[in-house]
Amino acid sequence: MSKPNFAPLKLFITGPTYIRQDVKEAGLLPEFGHRDKENDLRFVPIRENLRKLAGCGDDYEPILCLGSGSTAMEASVRSLVAEDETILNVSVGSFGDMYYNIAASNGKKAENLKFDYGRAIDLNVLEDKLKELKPQVVSFTHNETSTGVVNDMKAICSLIRRYGAMPLVDGVSIFGGADIALSESGAAMYSTATQKSLALPAGFGIGFVSKEAEEKAARVTNKGHHHDIIKHLDRARKNQTLTTPNTTLVNMMWYQLDRIVNEEGIERRFARHAEMRGIVEKWVAGLDGFDMFAPEGYRSPTMSTVLCPEGVTAAQLKGTVKEAMRGHGYLMDPGYMKLNNQLEEAGRRLVFRVGHMGDITPDMLTEYLGTLEAELKKL
Ligand SMILES: *Cc1c(COP(=O)(O)O)cnc(C)c1O
Description:
Aspartate Aminotransferase, domain 2; alanine-glyoxylate transaminase activity; 379 residues
């Protein structure tokens, strides 16, 4: 058998994320049968710890869909938008557009309300759209990974509800890195994934389903099989998954969630993420010609987007800087390609992203930024 030639890069991208050695080793725990009582030993604590991280008690039921974040998002659309209804997707970037594309490609009557890259959702603009379109369902992105903007989930859900619509939230890149206070959020269903702020490999789309969403889904037709949240809920209440889970990932998840809740502590984990946002802000403030891309007050705690000085090109970021960082043992994120292409075409300053989610520590981040600074200064 040949030996792999894989580079052991530290991932500073925005997902998948760096995985701790002890979490990797938990993948060596015994495989198990998913309809056997051994299954419960993993999934009872997994579901309990997910609820703690979400801050939702019994108000929401966590479901685990084999797939990734977009699988849970697709399940929300298939299960919660009835055939004669309209969904309004609200987008502040590429992942907002993705929710729209999921709805449209499933044949839903969908409209996309787009805000400029780098902006958060403007409640006045959204309100006008709600009045005009009168949608039954509205989706939006909690933490927009293409721009580093975090939206005010509670305020947006509250506005959507004032117009009688049901809010669906994509929280893929923030869950596990910030307090989402789900019970007070107003979201009908909240979707996330394992490979971002939970610092696990990809493999599950995680959905938090409210009772109200469950009642509605019971009336919606043509939900398919894997996108039917009712089928998932039936299994979830038995602490099982609808289809065969990735048992390696389940073992890692059991370990990682227990470690987060009982060893690191939820509050400390959230504080660590906020601290890392501050580290990037401070670093950028000390760098000539660089600025934070997202407006103050809307900056993500799990990733940052940095505006480069005029004249820096996408080729330099994707080629020179990223490859130099690879030489230092890092996988760097040279910016969301579609965004940088648009910015470059418009003659505007480009951005790069710094993922600081999951199990990256302030020390690791400081070291990374120091190395990156030296490479940026060579441009
Ligand atoms: C990564 C991401 C997704 C897509 O998730 P997958 O797990 O790749 O399906 C969706 N929304 C946001 C905000 C993301 O960051």
